[in-house]
Amino acid sequence: MAVNYATVTWDQLHRDARALAEALMPKMPIKGIVAVTRGGLIPAAIAARELGCRLIETISVVTYDEENMGKPQIIKEPVAAGDGEGFLIIDDLVDSGVTARVVREKLPKAFFACLYAKPAGKELTDLFITEVPQDTWVLFPWDTAPLFVPPLAKSKKSTVD
């Protein structure tokens, strides 16, 4: 099966993170936010600003060794969050649900929110902004770099006559 790509720009990410924060307003007041590193760091920072939250904790779960899926391991515990009561968990994407499952087991009383969710993992979230097809690879702004594209007049063969 061919893999599709969806590119998320900085502007789109910011709009989606603000939409997530707006949807989380009914959960206020909260004790804090737990960002799932690394992808959840930027959405969590934006949501924290919008929600007026100063306490941001992190949890780091490693599931890949190079490119191979391995057994998930928590390499940084969210100590300040306890069992998650009164905390929001924020991530960029829930894909297969492997990381989300580990985070949920660690913080069973937290509310789990993410920007994007794929079908295989969306049941593990309490809230997400956009559903993404399972065969789509999401390219976040930190995964890409702008490249120079020469003007058509400078290319060897112009398709415009």
Task: Give the SSE map.
Blueprint: E1 4-7, H1 10-24, E2 32-37, H2 41-51, E3 56-65, E4 68-76, E5 87-94, H3 98-106, E6 111-117, E7 127-131, E8 136-139
Parallel strand pairs: 1-8, 2-3, 2-5, 5-6, 6-7
Antiparallel strand pairs: 3-4
Helix pairs in contact: 1-2
Any overview of this molecule?
- Keywords: Cell membrane, Glycosyltransferase, Magnesium, Membrane, Metal-binding, Purine salvage, Transferase.
- The chain is α/β, with parallel strands linked by helices and 161 residues long.
- It has a single domain, classed as Rossmann fold (3-Layer(aba) Sandwich).
- The protein has helices at 10-24, 41-51, 98-106, and strands spanning 4-7, 32-37, 56-65, 68-76, 87-94, 111-117, 127-131, 136-139.
- The strands form two sheets. A six-stranded mixed β-sheet has the order 4-3-2-5-6-7, with helices on both faces.
- Strand 2, helix 2 and strand 3 (56-65) form a beta-alpha-beta unit.
- Helix 1 (10-24) crosses helix 2 (41-51).
- The chain is globular.
- The N and C termini lie far apart (38 Å).
Helix content: 10-25%
What is the strand tally? 8
Number of domains: 1
Largest sheet, in brief, is: 6 strands, mixed
Reported CATH architecture: 3-Layer(aba) Sandwich
Kindly report how far apart the N and C termini lie.
38 Å
Class derived from helix and strand content: alpha/beta
- For the residues shown, what is the average pLDDT? 92
Strand percentage: 25-35%
CATH class: Alpha Beta
The name CATH uses for the topology is Rossmann fold
